[in-house]
Amino acid sequence: NRPMLDGDVVIPNHKITSPEMLRPQFTPGHDDGVKNGIARDGAVARPATGDDAGDAASITAPLRLDVVDAMLVADDGDDQTPTSTKKRYAIKTDPNGKHPPKIFCQGNNDPIGAIVDVSTPSGQDTALGLIGSVEWIVITCQEDREDGWIMIPAENLISSCQNTGTKIAAVVDRVGDVGGLARALELGIDALCVDAVDATENGELWDALIDAKEERRSAAAANADNVRGVTGDGSTGPSIPTIVQGTCRRVAPAGGKSTVLADRVCIDLVQSLKPTEGCWIGSSAKIMALVLSEAAQSSFVPSRPFRVNAGPVHSYVVMGDGASTKYLSELSAGDEVLVCDVVSGSERPVAVGRLKVEVRPCVQVGLVAPQSPPQTEEKASHGQVFLQQAETVRLGQTLGDDSFLRITDLEYKEHAQASDVL
Protein backbone atom coordinates (compact mmCIF):
# COMPACT_ATOMS: atom_id res chain seq x y z
CA ASN A 1 0.00 0.00 0.00
CA ARG A 2 2.94 2.33 -0.37
CA PRO A 3 2.73 5.23 -2.86
CA MET A 4 4.19 4.68 -6.31
CA LEU A 5 7.85 5.68 -6.52
CA ASP A 6 10.04 7.01 -9.30
CA GLY A 7 10.82 4.19 -11.71
CA ASP A 8 7.81 2.07 -10.74
CA VAL A 9 6.37 -0.16 -13.44
CA VAL A 10 2.59 -0.02 -13.62
CA ILE A 11 0.39 -2.48 -15.50
CA PRO A 12 -2.90 -0.99 -16.70
CA ASN A 13 -5.52 -2.80 -18.71
CA HIS A 14 -7.56 0.22 -19.70
CA LYS A 15 -6.85 -0.40 -23.40
CA ILE A 16 -8.49 -3.81 -23.26
CA THR A 17 -11.85 -3.58 -24.94
CA SER A 18 -13.31 -6.83 -23.72
CA PRO A 19 -13.07 -8.57 -20.34
CA GLU A 20 -12.70 -11.83 -22.27
CA MET A 21 -9.22 -10.72 -23.28
CA LEU A 22 -8.05 -11.13 -19.70
CA ARG A 23 -10.34 -13.89 -18.45
CA PRO A 24 -8.24 -17.01 -17.76
CA GLN A 25 -9.32 -19.92 -19.97
CA PHE A 26 -8.25 -23.45 -19.22
CA THR A 27 -8.91 -27.10 -19.72
CA PRO A 28 -10.20 -28.76 -16.52
CA GLY A 29 -7.38 -30.72 -14.94
CA HIS A 30 -4.75 -28.90 -17.00
CA ASP A 31 -2.11 -27.52 -14.58
CA ASP A 32 -0.18 -25.10 -16.81
CA GLY A 33 -0.56 -22.01 -14.65
CA VAL A 34 -3.98 -23.07 -13.32
CA LYS A 35 -4.75 -24.66 -9.95
CA ASN A 36 -8.18 -26.14 -9.23
CA GLY A 37 -9.78 -24.13 -12.01
CA ILE A 38 -8.33 -20.79 -10.79
CA ALA A 39 -5.48 -18.94 -12.52
CA ARG A 40 -2.38 -18.63 -10.41
CA ASP A 41 -1.24 -15.18 -9.33
CA GLY A 42 -0.06 -13.37 -12.44
CA ALA A 43 -1.12 -15.96 -15.03
CA VAL A 44 -2.93 -14.44 -18.01
CA ALA A 45 -4.66 -16.47 -20.69
CA ARG A 46 -4.42 -15.74 -24.38
CA PRO A 47 -7.97 -15.36 -25.81
CA ALA A 48 -9.28 -18.21 -27.95
CA THR A 49 -9.51 -17.12 -31.60
CA GLY A 50 -9.80 -18.65 -35.05
CA ASP A 51 -9.55 -22.42 -35.26
CA ASP A 52 -8.73 -22.59 -31.57
CA ALA A 53 -11.97 -20.93 -30.52
CA GLY A 54 -13.49 -24.23 -29.55
CA ASP A 55 -10.56 -25.21 -27.39
CA ALA A 56 -9.24 -23.63 -24.25
CA ALA A 57 -6.33 -21.27 -24.74
CA SER A 58 -3.07 -22.13 -23.07
CA ILE A 59 -1.61 -19.91 -20.42
CA THR A 60 1.08 -17.54 -21.72
CA ALA A 61 4.11 -16.28 -19.85
CA PRO A 62 3.11 -14.98 -16.39
CA LEU A 63 3.03 -11.30 -15.55
CA ARG A 64 6.09 -10.28 -13.56
CA LEU A 65 4.05 -9.10 -10.60
CA ASP A 66 7.15 -9.30 -8.45
CA VAL A 67 8.39 -6.06 -10.04
CA VAL A 68 4.98 -4.47 -10.62
CA ASP A 69 4.04 -1.76 -8.13
CA ALA A 70 0.41 -1.05 -8.98
CA MET A 71 -2.35 -1.99 -11.41
CA LEU A 72 -4.84 0.22 -13.23
CA VAL A 73 -8.12 -1.62 -13.61
CA ALA A 74 -11.10 -0.68 -15.78
CA ASP A 75 -14.04 0.05 -13.49
CA ASP A 76 -16.63 -1.91 -15.51
CA GLY A 77 -17.94 -4.11 -12.73
CA ASP A 78 -16.30 -7.20 -14.21
CA ASP A 79 -12.73 -7.20 -12.95
CA GLN A 80 -10.87 -10.02 -14.69
CA THR A 81 -7.31 -9.01 -13.90
CA PRO A 82 -5.04 -11.56 -12.25
CA THR A 83 -5.48 -12.15 -8.54
CA SER A 84 -2.93 -9.99 -6.78
CA THR A 85 -2.31 -8.08 -3.59
CA LYS A 86 -0.83 -5.19 -5.57
CA LYS A 87 -2.30 -1.73 -5.09
CA ARG A 88 -5.13 -1.18 -7.59
CA TYR A 89 -6.44 2.01 -9.10
CA ALA A 90 -9.82 2.19 -10.80
CA ILE A 91 -10.26 3.84 -14.20
CA LYS A 92 -13.60 5.50 -14.87
CA THR A 93 -14.43 6.88 -18.28
CA ASP A 94 -16.66 9.87 -18.97
CA PRO A 95 -19.89 8.50 -20.51
CA ASN A 96 -20.19 11.66 -22.60
CA GLY A 97 -16.60 11.46 -23.81
CA LYS A 98 -15.96 15.11 -22.98
CA HIS A 99 -13.29 14.54 -20.35
CA PRO A 100 -10.28 12.19 -20.08
CA PRO A 101 -10.76 8.95 -18.12
CA LYS A 102 -10.10 9.52 -14.41
CA ILE A 103 -8.07 7.39 -12.01
CA PHE A 104 -9.31 6.66 -8.49
CA CYS A 105 -7.90 4.85 -5.50
CA GLN A 106 -10.35 1.99 -5.05
CA GLY A 107 -12.81 2.87 -2.33
CA ASN A 108 -12.16 6.61 -2.71
CA ASN A 109 -14.33 8.97 -4.75
CA ASP A 110 -11.66 11.65 -5.18
CA PRO A 111 -9.74 11.27 -8.46
CA ILE A 112 -5.96 11.15 -8.19
CA GLY A 113 -5.22 11.32 -11.90
CA ALA A 114 -6.33 11.15 -15.51
CA ILE A 115 -5.42 9.31 -18.69
CA VAL A 116 -4.72 11.59 -21.65
CA ASP A 117 -3.93 10.76 -25.27
CA VAL A 118 -1.10 13.16 -26.18
CA SER A 119 -0.64 12.02 -29.79
CA THR A 120 -2.13 15.36 -30.93
CA PRO A 121 -1.36 18.97 -29.90
CA SER A 122 -4.82 19.30 -28.35
CA GLY A 123 -4.13 16.22 -26.22
CA GLN A 124 -0.88 17.72 -24.98
CA ASP A 125 -2.73 20.93 -24.10
CA THR A 126 -5.25 18.90 -22.11
CA ALA A 127 -2.47 17.20 -20.16
CA LEU A 128 -0.68 20.50 -19.50
CA GLY A 129 -3.95 21.93 -18.17
CA LEU A 130 -4.17 19.16 -15.56
CA ILE A 131 -0.75 19.85 -14.04
CA GLY A 132 -1.04 20.89 -10.42
CA SER A 133 -4.61 19.66 -10.06
CA VAL A 134 -3.96 15.89 -10.07
CA GLU A 135 -1.32 13.62 -8.60
CA TRP A 136 -0.83 11.53 -11.75
CA ILE A 137 -1.20 12.08 -15.48
CA VAL A 138 -0.98 8.87 -17.52
CA ILE A 139 -0.16 9.70 -21.14
CA THR A 140 -0.88 7.47 -24.12
CA CYS A 141 -0.45 7.69 -27.87
CA GLN A 142 -3.53 6.00 -29.34
CA GLU A 143 -5.49 8.36 -31.56
CA ASP A 144 -2.80 8.72 -34.22
CA ARG A 145 -0.26 5.99 -33.51
CA GLU A 146 1.56 6.27 -36.83
CA ASP A 147 2.10 10.03 -36.88
CA GLY A 148 1.36 10.84 -33.25
CA TRP A 149 4.07 12.13 -30.93
CA ILE A 150 4.79 10.95 -27.40
CA MET A 151 8.47 11.75 -26.73
CA ILE A 152 8.25 15.53 -27.15
CA PRO A 153 4.93 15.76 -25.24
CA ALA A 154 6.51 13.70 -22.46
CA GLU A 155 9.48 16.08 -22.26
CA ASN A 156 7.18 19.10 -22.23
CA LEU A 157 5.14 17.59 -19.40
CA ILE A 158 8.20 16.58 -17.38
CA SER A 159 9.55 20.12 -17.65
CA SER A 160 6.22 21.70 -16.68
CA CYS A 161 5.61 19.30 -13.77
CA GLN A 162 8.74 20.15 -11.80
CA ASN A 163 7.83 21.16 -8.22
CA THR A 164 4.08 21.01 -8.92
CA GLY A 165 3.26 17.73 -7.16
CA THR A 166 2.05 16.14 -10.39
CA LYS A 167 3.79 13.00 -11.67
CA ILE A 168 3.84 11.64 -15.23
CA ALA A 169 3.37 8.02 -16.28
CA ALA A 170 3.40 6.77 -19.86
CA VAL A 171 1.80 3.76 -21.50
CA VAL A 172 4.33 2.02 -23.76
CA ASP A 173 3.76 -0.67 -26.34
CA ARG A 174 7.04 -0.44 -28.26
CA VAL A 175 10.46 -1.46 -26.97
CA GLY A 176 12.08 1.54 -28.66
CA ASP A 177 10.03 4.01 -26.60
CA VAL A 178 11.03 2.67 -23.19
CA GLY A 179 14.57 4.05 -22.98
CA GLY A 180 13.64 7.47 -24.35
CA LEU A 181 10.78 7.93 -21.89
CA ALA A 182 12.77 6.57 -18.95
CA ARG A 183 15.61 9.03 -19.61
CA ALA A 184 13.72 12.03 -21.02
CA LEU A 185 15.36 15.35 -20.07
CA GLU A 186 17.83 13.28 -18.00
CA LEU A 187 15.02 12.95 -15.45
CA GLY A 188 12.66 10.45 -17.03
CA ILE A 189 8.98 10.02 -16.39
CA ASP A 190 7.84 8.85 -12.97
CA ALA A 191 6.34 5.50 -14.04
CA LEU A 192 6.04 3.24 -17.07
CA CYS A 193 2.77 1.47 -17.83
CA VAL A 194 2.18 -1.53 -20.04
CA ASP A 195 -0.98 -3.24 -21.21
CA ALA A 196 -1.40 -6.61 -19.49
CA VAL A 197 -1.72 -8.45 -22.81
CA ASP A 198 1.31 -6.67 -24.28
CA ALA A 199 3.32 -7.64 -21.22
CA THR A 200 2.72 -11.34 -21.71
CA GLU A 201 2.93 -11.46 -25.50
CA ASN A 202 6.00 -9.26 -25.95
CA GLY A 203 8.89 -10.56 -23.92
CA GLU A 204 11.31 -7.91 -25.25
CA LEU A 205 9.00 -5.13 -24.07
CA TRP A 206 8.79 -6.66 -20.62
CA ASP A 207 12.59 -7.03 -20.44
CA ALA A 208 13.04 -3.39 -21.48
CA LEU A 209 10.65 -2.23 -18.75
CA ILE A 210 12.47 -4.20 -16.07
CA ASP A 211 15.86 -2.92 -17.29
CA ALA A 212 14.59 0.68 -17.20
CA LYS A 213 13.31 0.24 -13.67
CA GLU A 214 16.57 -1.26 -12.44
CA GLU A 215 18.57 1.49 -14.15
CA ARG A 216 16.47 4.15 -12.43
CA ARG A 217 16.82 2.53 -9.01
CA SER A 218 20.58 2.06 -9.43
CA ALA A 219 21.08 5.66 -10.55
CA ALA A 220 19.02 6.94 -7.63
CA ALA A 221 21.08 4.92 -5.16
CA ALA A 222 24.40 6.03 -6.68
CA ASN A 223 23.44 9.71 -6.75
CA ALA A 224 21.34 9.97 -3.61
CA ASP A 225 23.08 13.15 -2.47
CA ASN A 226 22.37 14.82 -5.83
CA VAL A 227 18.81 13.60 -6.19
CA ARG A 228 17.69 14.53 -2.67
CA GLY A 229 18.63 17.49 -0.52
CA VAL A 230 19.12 17.24 3.23
CA THR A 231 17.14 19.50 5.56
CA GLY A 232 18.33 20.94 8.86
CA ASP A 233 17.05 17.97 10.82
CA GLY A 234 18.85 15.52 8.55
CA SER A 235 15.75 14.34 6.73
CA THR A 236 15.67 14.12 2.96
CA GLY A 237 13.52 16.21 0.68
CA PRO A 238 13.17 17.23 -2.98
CA SER A 239 16.19 18.68 -4.71
CA ILE A 240 16.12 22.48 -5.01
CA PRO A 241 18.50 24.94 -6.69
CA THR A 242 21.41 25.87 -4.43
CA ILE A 243 23.62 28.98 -4.52
CA VAL A 244 27.32 28.15 -4.15
CA GLN A 245 30.55 30.02 -4.71
CA GLY A 246 32.47 28.59 -7.62
CA THR A 247 35.12 29.75 -10.07
CA CYS A 248 35.19 30.94 -13.65
CA ARG A 249 37.72 31.30 -16.45
CA ARG A 250 37.56 32.76 -19.91
CA VAL A 251 37.59 29.94 -22.43
CA ALA A 252 38.76 30.08 -26.04
CA PRO A 253 35.91 28.89 -28.28
CA ALA A 254 36.56 26.16 -30.80
CA GLY A 255 38.47 27.55 -33.75
CA GLY A 256 40.79 29.64 -31.61
CA LYS A 257 38.83 32.91 -31.91
CA SER A 258 38.78 35.03 -28.78
CA THR A 259 35.18 36.13 -29.36
CA VAL A 260 32.13 34.96 -31.29
CA LEU A 261 29.38 37.03 -32.88
CA ALA A 262 26.03 36.20 -31.33
CA ASP A 263 22.44 37.38 -31.17
CA ARG A 264 22.75 38.93 -27.72
CA VAL A 265 19.63 39.48 -25.61
CA CYS A 266 19.16 42.30 -23.12
CA ILE A 267 16.28 41.65 -20.72
CA ASP A 268 14.58 44.95 -19.95
CA LEU A 269 12.42 44.55 -16.85
CA VAL A 270 9.41 46.54 -15.66
CA GLN A 271 11.12 47.33 -12.33
CA SER A 272 14.45 48.92 -11.50
CA LEU A 273 17.15 46.68 -10.07
CA LYS A 274 19.91 47.51 -7.61
CA PRO A 275 23.53 47.26 -8.75
CA THR A 276 23.74 44.12 -6.59
CA GLU A 277 20.75 42.41 -8.24
CA GLY A 278 20.71 40.26 -11.33
CA CYS A 279 19.38 37.15 -13.09
CA TRP A 280 20.67 33.58 -13.26
CA ILE A 281 21.97 32.83 -16.78
CA GLY A 282 23.72 29.77 -18.25
CA SER A 283 24.13 27.56 -21.28
CA SER A 284 22.89 24.67 -19.12
CA ALA A 285 20.14 24.66 -16.53
CA LYS A 286 22.42 22.60 -14.25
CA ILE A 287 24.91 25.39 -13.55
CA MET A 288 24.31 29.12 -14.02
CA ALA A 289 25.95 32.42 -13.10
CA LEU A 290 24.40 35.53 -11.56
CA VAL A 291 24.62 38.25 -14.22
CA LEU A 292 24.16 41.61 -12.51
CA SER A 293 22.08 44.50 -13.78
CA GLU A 294 23.44 47.55 -15.60
CA ALA A 295 22.49 49.75 -12.63
CA ALA A 296 26.11 50.48 -11.72
CA GLN A 297 27.15 54.10 -12.30
CA SER A 298 29.74 54.92 -14.95
CA SER A 299 31.14 58.11 -16.49
CA PHE A 300 31.07 56.51 -19.95
CA VAL A 301 27.41 55.43 -20.27
CA PRO A 302 24.22 56.18 -18.34
CA SER A 303 23.07 53.40 -16.03
CA ARG A 304 20.22 51.15 -17.09
CA PRO A 305 18.88 49.82 -13.76
CA PHE A 306 16.09 47.90 -15.48
CA ARG A 307 18.44 45.95 -17.79
CA VAL A 308 20.30 42.64 -17.58
CA ASN A 309 22.63 41.90 -20.48
CA ALA A 310 21.97 38.15 -20.56
CA GLY A 311 24.01 36.90 -23.50
CA PRO A 312 23.04 34.92 -26.62
CA VAL A 313 19.59 33.57 -27.49
CA HIS A 314 20.49 29.96 -26.65
CA SER A 315 21.08 30.65 -22.95
CA TYR A 316 18.72 29.69 -20.14
CA VAL A 317 17.28 32.09 -17.58
CA VAL A 318 15.68 31.07 -14.28
CA MET A 319 12.00 32.01 -14.23
CA GLY A 320 10.10 33.75 -11.45
CA ASP A 321 9.10 30.51 -9.71
CA GLY A 322 12.77 29.86 -8.94
CA ALA A 323 12.65 26.34 -10.37
CA SER A 324 11.83 26.40 -14.08
CA THR A 325 13.91 27.86 -16.92
CA LYS A 326 13.36 29.21 -20.40
CA TYR A 327 15.58 29.90 -23.37
CA LEU A 328 16.17 33.61 -23.84
CA SER A 329 14.75 33.15 -27.33
CA GLU A 330 11.45 32.01 -25.78
CA LEU A 331 11.05 34.90 -23.33
CA SER A 332 8.29 37.37 -24.04
CA ALA A 333 6.85 40.49 -22.46
CA GLY A 334 4.94 39.62 -19.29
CA ASP A 335 7.06 36.58 -18.40
CA GLU A 336 8.47 36.76 -14.89
CA VAL A 337 12.16 36.04 -14.29
CA LEU A 338 13.86 35.54 -10.94
CA VAL A 339 15.91 38.47 -9.63
CA CYS A 340 18.45 37.74 -6.88
CA ASP A 341 20.31 40.22 -4.64
CA VAL A 342 23.92 39.17 -4.17
CA VAL A 343 24.20 41.01 -0.83
CA SER A 344 21.04 39.91 0.99
CA GLY A 345 20.36 36.72 -0.94
CA SER A 346 16.74 37.81 -1.32
CA GLU A 347 14.83 36.84 -4.46
CA ARG A 348 11.80 38.25 -6.22
CA PRO A 349 9.98 37.67 -9.50
CA VAL A 350 9.98 40.60 -11.93
CA ALA A 351 8.11 40.80 -15.23
CA VAL A 352 9.84 41.29 -18.57
CA GLY A 353 8.98 44.53 -20.32
CA ARG A 354 10.78 43.90 -23.60
CA LEU A 355 13.73 42.07 -25.13
CA LYS A 356 16.50 43.88 -26.98
CA VAL A 357 18.27 41.55 -29.45
CA GLU A 358 21.38 42.73 -31.29
CA VAL A 359 24.45 41.14 -32.86
CA ARG A 360 27.37 41.64 -30.48
CA PRO A 361 30.79 40.03 -29.79
CA CYS A 362 30.59 37.55 -26.90
CA VAL A 363 33.15 35.62 -24.88
CA GLN A 364 32.83 32.14 -23.44
CA VAL A 365 33.17 31.86 -19.66
CA GLY A 366 33.75 28.44 -18.13
CA LEU A 367 32.01 27.77 -14.79
CA VAL A 368 32.97 25.27 -12.07
CA ALA A 369 30.74 24.62 -9.06
CA PRO A 370 32.07 22.49 -6.18
CA GLN A 371 30.09 19.52 -4.96
CA SER A 372 28.98 19.09 -1.36
CA PRO A 373 30.84 17.58 0.38
CA PRO A 374 33.87 19.04 -1.49
CA GLN A 375 35.55 16.65 -3.88
CA THR A 376 38.17 16.93 -6.59
CA GLU A 377 37.70 19.34 -9.48
CA GLU A 378 37.07 16.36 -11.74
CA LYS A 379 34.01 15.55 -9.62
CA ALA A 380 32.73 19.14 -9.60
CA SER A 381 29.94 20.42 -11.85
CA HIS A 382 31.17 22.13 -15.01
CA GLY A 383 29.32 24.48 -17.32
CA GLN A 384 29.72 27.66 -19.32
CA VAL A 385 27.98 30.86 -20.32
CA PHE A 386 28.47 33.23 -23.25
CA LEU A 387 28.30 36.94 -22.38
CA GLN A 388 28.87 40.16 -24.27
CA GLN A 389 32.40 41.52 -24.11
CA ALA A 390 31.55 44.81 -22.43
CA GLU A 391 32.51 46.54 -19.17
CA THR A 392 28.85 46.87 -18.20
CA VAL A 393 28.44 43.08 -18.00
CA ARG A 394 29.25 41.96 -14.46
CA LEU A 395 29.03 38.71 -12.48
CA GLY A 396 28.23 38.48 -8.77
CA GLN A 397 31.14 37.08 -6.80
CA THR A 398 30.36 36.51 -3.13
CA LEU A 399 27.04 36.04 -1.40
CA GLY A 400 26.83 38.69 1.31
CA ASP A 401 28.83 41.56 -0.22
CA ASP A 402 28.72 43.79 -3.29
CA SER A 403 31.83 42.45 -5.00
CA PHE A 404 31.57 41.76 -8.70
CA LEU A 405 33.65 40.67 -11.67
CA ARG A 406 33.59 42.46 -15.01
CA ILE A 407 33.62 40.19 -18.04
CA THR A 408 36.35 42.35 -19.57
CA ASP A 409 38.59 41.55 -16.58
CA LEU A 410 38.72 37.94 -17.72
CA GLU A 411 41.59 37.49 -20.16
CA TYR A 412 42.07 34.23 -22.00
CA LYS A 413 45.30 32.53 -21.00
CA GLU A 414 46.12 28.85 -21.10
CA HIS A 415 46.92 28.75 -17.38
CA ALA A 416 44.91 31.76 -16.21
CA GLN A 417 43.95 31.78 -12.54
CA ALA A 418 40.28 31.11 -11.87
CA SER A 419 38.16 33.92 -10.45
CA ASP A 420 35.50 33.51 -7.79
CA VAL A 421 31.93 33.75 -9.00
CA LEU A 422 28.45 32.81 -7.83
Could you characterize what this model shows?
This protein has 422 residues and is an alpha+beta fold. Helix content is 14%, strand content 33%. It has 6 helices and 25 strands. It has helices at 121-130, 151-161, 175-182, 196-201, 203-222, 224-227, and strands at 8-12, 34-35, 38-39, 68-74, 87-92, 102-105, 111-117, 136-140, 167-171, 191-193, 228-230, 236-238, 246-251, 260-269, 277-284, 287-292, 307-312, 316-318, 325-327, 336-341, 347-369, 381-388, 394-396, 404-406, 419-421. The strands form 5 sheets. Strands 13, 14, 15, 16, 17, 18, 19, 20, 21, 22 and 25 form an 11-stranded antiparallel sheet that branches. It has an 8-stranded mixed β-barrel with strand order 1-4-5-6-7-8-9-10, surrounded by 4 helices. A two-stranded antiparallel ribbon has the order 2-3. Strand 23 (394-396) and strand 24 (404-406) form a beta hairpin. Helix 1 (121-130) runs parallel beside helix 2 (151-161).
